[in-house]
Amino acid sequence: MEIDCGKMNNELSVWGKGLLAISVFLPFWLWGVLEQGMFVDGLTYASISRNLSIGLGSFWHPYYWNDSFYGHPPLFFGLESMVFRIFGDSIWVEKLVSLLLNVGIFISFFPILKWVNPRLDRWLIATLWAILPLVCWSVGAHILDTPLTLSTLWAVGLAYHPDRKEKPWLGIASGFLIGISVGIKGPVGLFPFLLFLLNTGDVREKITFFIQQLLGFLLLAIPVFAMEDARVFFSNYLKIQVWGSMEESHRILFFQHGLQCFLPFVVVRMLVSRSFRIPSSIWTAWGKVLLMLLPLLLSGKQHDYYWLPFMPWMAIATFSDGITLKISKKFLGVTWVLFLFIAIEIWWHFGEKERDREQILAMEKFSKILPDGSIVGHEPPLDQDWIWIAYGIRYHRWWNRGMSDVEFYFSTDSTNSMASSGKYHVKKVPLKHE
């Protein structure tokens, strides 16, 4: 199948496909970016980065609200804290970071796909990745799997560089990026070491590249672990997060999430194939990527977004036989209608409170009483309402201290409340408790 662009020259054909692709996925991306609410993990990561930017905690002792945070390695928090120093403590900073990271992933498809196979339709593959429901959700979620996707995409992509034999530093750079990936989200960042399952080079070439990768990884790991603070951090991280997650018993969700993430690729490939048949080569390409996912079973903690770093390679595998779509000149006129829709969406949805609306409205109301940085208490069951606590910390730096030594506290009981919003009420501790 070839692209039919009528009388358009090649340059216009490329621009036309680009405009059409961006028009298709950008509205889905902006939907999550423009609303105020955010996934609770994203709120937590943004709070940690913001805290670092204002001097709360340090790189190896990142601070959330009551102690050092050992849930994930600190590299991303340290990098994002510099963005907060530049742009200030706005709730849109983390949205901007998440959006730009996804733009970076989209752009990265083009040089990497040229190395993988110049025959591949780069716009088609990049657009397939961009419109995946999981990807569209992640753009506004501010999760660590997004920067992990970018770093691992390049770590694997460098294995396809045409000059990798003559330039050993490419393998070293790939290994260094694997170290960066581990610094973002721990052991899951090691999966590019398995890239020989994707790479089609001979055995000797694969071993050579692996050694180069290992050297690049050690060039980063050795100086890091030479620091005592780093050793203390990773010791706590292994005990609290890694071993803790391995003890959980939700591995069956791996297969449920796998079906959820894999099905869109099967459907898309069937729709663009003749007679809805999928060639055996595509099944083989998918199988190689799925093999790289098996180490995820070591963790008893399973979420669908853990699959995000593998989605670019699933998209590449889906069209790895070089199939393209026909795009007529008349159809490209639809792009201007789509761009108009994007403009309307930006104007209509900017600042909307769709997700966690109740919490955000309560925060706005209570902020007129409680100054930013206040130490507050939480009566049960709010002491276990992690979403409410996360919004308080991120939006107004309301530090949760249980019910001891606080002047104000939140409750679900409206009796004697100073202000109320939905099920949330703020109260002043009686004088006898002060």
Your description of this structure?
This protein has 16 helices and seven strands. It has 434 residues and is mainly α. It has two domains: 36-324, no CATH class; 357-433, no CATH class. The strands form two sheets. The protein has a five-stranded mixed β-sheet, covered by helices on one side. A hairpin with a 2-residue loop joins strand 1 and strand 2 (61-62). The longest helix has 25 residues, at 10-34. The radius of gyration is 24 Å and the shape is globular.
Q: If helices are DSSP runs of H or I spanning 4 or more residues, what is the number of helices?
A: 16
Largest sheet: 5 strands, mixed
Q: Please state the average pLDDT score.
A: 83
The structural domain count equals 2
Helix/strand/pairing category: mainly alpha
Q: Topology as H/E string?
A: HHEEHHHHHHHHHHHHHEHEEEE
Beta-strand content:
5-15%
Record field, number of beta strands: 7
End-to-end separation: 77 Å
* Spatial order of the strands forming the largest sheet: 4-3-5-7-6
Which descriptor suits the 3D outline?
A: globular
Helical residue percent band: 55-70%
What key attributes describe this structure?
single chain; 434 residues; mainly alpha; 2 domains; two-stranded antiparallel ribbon; 7 strands; globular; disordered N terminus
In short:
It is built from 16 helices and seven strands. With 434 residues, the chain is mainly α.
